[in-house]
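WARN  no MSA supplied for this record, continuing single-sequence
INFO  ligand: nicotinamide-adenine-dinucleotide
INFO  echoing inputs
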Amino acid sequence: MSEASEKALLESVPDGLFIGGEWSPAISGRTLDVHDPATGEVIKTIADAAVDDGAAALDAAVNAEAAWAKTPPRERAEVLRRAFDLVQEHKDDVGLLMTLEMGKPLAESKAEVSYGSEFLRWFSEESVRIFGRYGSNPEGTGRMIVSQHPVGPCFLITPWNFPLAMATRKIAPAVAAGCTVVIKPPELTPLTTLYFVKLLAEAGLPPGVVNVITTSTSGKVSGPIIADPRLRKLSFTGSTEVGRKLLEQAAANILRTSMELGGNAPFLIFDDADLGAAVDGAMMAKFRNIGQACTAANRFIVHQAVADEFAARVTERVQAFNIGRGTEEDVQIGPLINADAVQKADALVRDATYRGAKVLTGGHPIEGPGTFYEPTVVTGVRPGSDILREEIFGPVLSIVTFGDEDEAVRIANDTEYGLVGYAYTKDLARGQRLIESLQTGMLGLNVGVVSNAAAPFGGVKQSGIGREGGFEGIQEYLSTKYTLTPNPFAG
Ligand code: NAD
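INFO  complex generated
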């Protein structure tokens, strides 16, 4: 990829806030810098919204709500479908932009463009399938009508790790349901959302339906929006810590909320597993997105009879990784998002080794420029180690062993999180038992990646509330109304 084409792409990304269909600078004129984590360089300077800008964005969403809610579902669907086509048309640019601001290898960015754009197609199809029901009450004295309505103006907050998919997974169902939104992308990777929203406008989305505010002061700007009684819904993807704070704020106005929060995924490998398939699945579940995924396998819980062989095979694969800037060919491991992320991965590895774990490969930060950490395998991780409790969010594969199924399940469930689990076994009955005994919202049974626009994505326990994608995804943006009428045949 030439420097000139990167520059041209970055210049084509809007640098303003998108409010009421217009791009504008922040009222204060303040700006924020976006960096390439592979080099540390500033790649673009954009508007930095303050409280007034947030209020203007919410005004625009509120003003557009009534008309958008009445827009025929087919029209809403066609805007989303055109947006899907436009993202496909610009897939190379969207992919490159994600790599530039977030650091993941280009091949992974392209995979995210496919995954992320599918939400546009899926929810364009769901838009025309919003149904209710009609029937007699049991007494026969009346007719019950159950109908579905858009919840109203929504506030969407997204994380930096999947810059396109996290935005489309919220915007598409909201728009399909007839809601208007204010979206606040993360300050670390806001460019993909700005570029995508430009495409949405090109696809014919009316002014005010989607508004974007970028800011370096997320808490300050979000607070008044959440406190505004005209807001009807808050949808957040990010850390459990921030999600908990936002739930408290949302309680004041009893807001509808969807919370897609952190994970601590267990990856179970039984002694009857196809070990080759488990190794392939492990590499995907651990190292996709450089380990920076809420679905990333955090704890490899491996039967003691196969643990050494598994450790040796993954170590060999990890040692073969190419590390570098995601734009370079054949790179599988890019930088972590920032220096804090490197420090966190390093601290977790140090704590694990201090408590008795052994590093089989890696285990150190890589000298700059950029914020890289060596892809790492640690084995023999002892109970009580921080790495078993906290999200690693980096390229560190940690292994603990178990003796029987009950022990494996006990270790897997020993966390406050419950987003996704993975299990490799050839025993069908065991697989069925695991569906019931693992406390997670999702399970990869002999597969290492579960995400799909047609699937209900979400967690239990402190991993969140609600589901995104699938038939369930649009329900998050609809409210149910029940109407009773008299029996029309009664005297
Ligand atoms: P984060 O919680 O720090 O930030 C998420 C978003 O919230 C960002 O836009 C940020 O600017 C904003 N934010 C931060 N503080 C805020 C506040 N006080 N008020 C309002 N907004 C605020 O998370 P992150 O570091 O961007 O993302 C990583 C986390 O997201 C991980 O915990 C990961 O597991 C989680 N995640 C979950 C899912 C899921 O679907 N469950 C998907 C991706 C990421």
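The first strand starts at residue 17 and ends at 19.
INFO  checksum written, moving to next record
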